[in-house]
Give the backbone structure.
Amino acid sequence: MAARGGRVAAAAIAAARRGPGRAPGPGPASEPAPGAVPEAAAPAAASVYVHWPYCRKRCSYCNFNTYVVPAVDEAAVRACLVQEARTLLRLSQVKSITSVFFGGGTPSLASPGTIAAVLEAVAGAAHLPAGAEVTLEANPSSTTTQRLAAFKAAGVNRLSIGVQSLDDVELRLLGREHTAAEAQAAVEAARGLFPGRTSIDLLFGLPRQSLDAWTQRLEAALGLCDDHISLYQLTLERGTVLAAQVWGGALPAPPQDLLADMYQAAHTMLVPAGFRHYEVSNFARKGALSTHNLSYWWAEQYIGVGPGAHGRFVPRGEGGCRREARVQMLEPTAWMRAVQSQGHGTGKRVMLSQLEQLEEVLALGLRTDEGITHERWGRFSPHLSLEAVFGAAGQALQQQQRWMVLDGSGLRCTERGLAVLDALLPDVLCQLQRAWGRAAPRPSPGPGRRDRGAASGGGGARP
């Protein structure tokens, strides 16, 4: 499994921007409006995502940037990961690292020495506090107790295990390597080494999966899990084996009503068990929230290292003062050649406008139960308040049929709203775009021109 936090973040933004009804007027590339100042006061901290692109096999639903190859030149990959981490951290000039996440692919196939080398490079380029969260994604088929202990010695202090299902028939449908028994053994071993810091991933909405079957998986997971669970609705991606089977009629697609019932069942079962539903797909108890994924939802800076990794940071080392969206080259060999020649393998970089940043703050922050606080919004938009965008406190309740709340704390979804957030986001972004257009300064008349409103005795330019 790949690191879903960053990919879900990117997908949420892209889907929201593709939604119907984009407001007319200034688009993302428009000139700055009120509050559109360079990110001069940006936090001197960031999280780091490291992508290990290799797997032993490709799962039937996977369209992530992963590769199955006969052999991996791990020494070369390690050297490039180390070099790129140093280069991008130097370019960002961040002073402190809040978290590190090793995703993929299957990063538990990398040697503990590679993990240690990358962490050493990160700590050498910026301050990595002793207690900073360092997560490794792991598949049950590559997580022996001895190997997990070696990862812990390398600096990993949190595991995210791609269980996906606790049913052998479902695991075979998904093309997973492990069995339900192996998944259970892996989670138990991980909990012994990382107590309170072991997360599991589960998928729902599989073809032929019933609501009863899903609740049984949840009951089994509650008996096995630690203090963090991530639940993801299966999405059919073009080019995958599973999508071809469903679209070709060999397997049925679950109806939308069933998917909604499955999502609600998870909330109904996990919350009474002490879990906080702190993000659309994530549940935690005893304060075991994922620091790294929260950095995405809170629109903090993050640096992506490795083939296909995404990042969002200000390249201050080049004199930059605005945040950029970066994507590293996808193909590992091309990426390594670029790193070896220029220190990094960035394939695409786009400077984000102020409006685009605010769109991301909304699309990501609304995924959390906390939503977007006034303080966090003000960091990105000091002169255009949430009230200026969405109306006085309380009005958002009426506008979104009690799916959202705007009050003294900020803007957030209700429990009902979280379940339908993807459908709400296009309208939410339209409201932002309209407010942005209203607040944008109008061009002043050029030399020798008279404002038509002033010429007719009006008080200013016509609307």
Observations:
- The CA atoms of residues 159 and 451 lie 64 Å apart.
